[in-house]
Amino acid sequence: MPGPARVLVVSPHRDDETIGCGGTISRHADRGDAVHVVHLTGHGGASLAEAREAGRRLGVAGISTLSAPETQLTADRALLTELVAVFREVRPGVVYAPHADEDDPAHRVAAELAREARWISAYPILPDAGPALAEPPAVLYEFEVWTPMARPSVFVDITAVRDRKVDALTAYASQLAHNEWIDGALGLNRYRGVTSGHGEFVEAFTAVRTTHVSFGQ
Ligand SMILES: [Zn+2]
After folding, report:
1. Could you tell me if residue 46 is inside a domain?
2. How much distance in Å is there from the Cα of 105 to the middle of ligand 1?
3. pLDDT tens across 96-139, in order?
4. In this structure, what CATH number is given to the domain that contains residue 44?
5. From ligand 1's centre to the CA of 110, what distance in Å?
6. Distance 70 CA to ligand 1 centre (A)
7. From the CA of 199, how far away is ligand 1's center (Å)?
8. Looking at the 3D structure of the chain, how many domains does it have?
9. Which residues, at least 6 apart from 156, have a Cβ–Cβ distance to it below 8 Å?
10. Does any domain span residue 31?
11. Distance of CA 159 from the midpoint of ligand 1 (Å)
12. CB of 126 within 8 A of CB of 35?
C-alpha cells in the first residue's frame, strides 16, 4: 500500500471542483492524501469564503487562486506560469482537471493549461515558476462538470461520501440561489453509477498517463 499521496485539483471556477470530483476529493482526504485545489479565477461566482467552507467539508488541505479574469480566459504564458508554480510547489503525484470537451470555454482553458503544466512542471523552462520537478505527476484524471464525456474510463464509487458532496455543494450558497446544481451534479453521478455498474453514485474520469514504453536494447 503506497503512502499518502499529494493531489492537485485544477478547477476553472470556485465550485467546479466540488461538482466534478467532490466525492473523489473526500475519498482522497479520508485515506490521508493531501488535496490542494487551485482555481484559475476568483472573479464572479462564488466567494473565497464559500470555497474554503466547501473545501473544509470535503477535507481539502489547501486552496489557492490564480489571476485569470472573469471571462475571456486564455491559456496564455502568464497564467501557465502561475499554474506551473503551483504544480512545482504542491508536487502532486495525481492531478485532476476538467476534460477538454467541456462546453464552457473557461473549462477548456483549464483542461489545456493542466495538460501543459503537467509536463512543463518537470521541464527546465519557466524559471519564474520555481525549480523544475524531478518528474511530472504520474497521472492526470479529467473530470466532468456540465458536459458528460463520451467515453469515461475511470470510475470512483462516491456513494459512501455522497452526503459530504451535497454538504460541500451547499456551502456554495451564492451559486445555488437560482439553479438546482445539486440535483444536476448528483443526477450525473447516479447516471454514471447505473451505466458503469461501479456503485450507486459514481464520478467518472478519463486518465492521461505518462507511460514509458521500452523496446529493449
Ligand atoms: Zn466553471
Report:
1. yes
2. 9
3. 999 999 999 999 999 999 999 999 999 999 999 999 999 999 99
4. 3.40.50.10320
5. 10
6. 11
7. 26
8. 1
9. 21, 23, 24, 27, 198, 202, 203, 204, 205
10. yes
11. 24
12. no
